[in-house]
Amino acid sequence: MSRLPVLETPRLLLRPFALSDARSVQALAGDxxxxxxxxxxxxxxxxxxxxxxxxxxxxxxxxxxxxxFAITRKTxxxxxxxxxxxxxxxxxxxxxxxxxxxxxxxxxxxxxxGRAVLAFGFGTLHLQKIHACFFPRNPASGRVLEKLxxxxxxxxxxxxxxxxxYEDIVVCGILREEWFxxxxxxxxxxEADRKTPSTExxxxxxxxxx
Length: 210
Ligand SMILES: CC(C)(COP(=O)(O)OP(=O)(O)OC[C@H]1O[C@@H](n2cnc3c(N)ncnc32)[C@H](O)[C@@H]1OP(=O)(O)O)[C@@H](O)C(=O)NCCC(=O)NCCS
Prior knowledge:
By secondary structure, the chain is an alpha+beta fold. The protein is built from six helices and nine strands, in the order E-E-H-H-H-E-E-E-H-E-H-E-E-H-E. A nine-stranded mixed sheet has the order 7-8-6-5-4-3-2-1-9, with helices on both faces. A hairpin with a 5-residue loop joins strand 3 and strand 4 (79-88).
């Protein structure tokens, strides 16, 4: 696949970022609360950083390294946040990363977007595992991953140095067969039966890094 598709969920369109999103990315991701619980979002979020980040997307998707989506509301097309996969092609595995701008918190957007990206990762990219990590002091992220069906695999103690402080991170993951298993049953659905988000061709193909 050479171009990132658009994924549709009941309330959201997940689409490639465009340079015209840069101002909104800077405003939303520039909130200190976003940098506080993520590993790769700079703070302060200076002018030009969003453009630079968005400018890497197309090449990184084409090379199979990353797939980044802008989370936008269907109703008014406003940017809500970002979600994406950093792909380890040799292992058929990817790391899920995301942020939602503070005005959008607590409305289920991240979980809704996450389900679509997992469906894309397993259904379209044919990954065998998707994993993610979060700080124990960020229970909202832990809950998102739990709602996505991820299993807590362990704690990496004092694994990250964040603002001069060593912090634990919790690692979670979901395997391909777990994703395709009917929730709450022991039977497995056929892969074709599993609901995948609708995709449509799109004129911009971009990827990135959360
Ligand atoms: C983590 C984040 C993406 C969640 O986005 P969101 O759109 O608000 O998430 P959702 O609404 O889909 O789900 C959040 C869940 O966490 C729960 N939650 C929120 N705060 C919580 C808390 N302090 N303790 C426990 N659960 C909490 C919510 O109730 C909800 O669960 P529910 O649907 O069972 O009620 C958002 O807070 C964010 O962007 N934070 C900053 C960046 C970040 O931390 N990114 C992730 C890095 S690992």
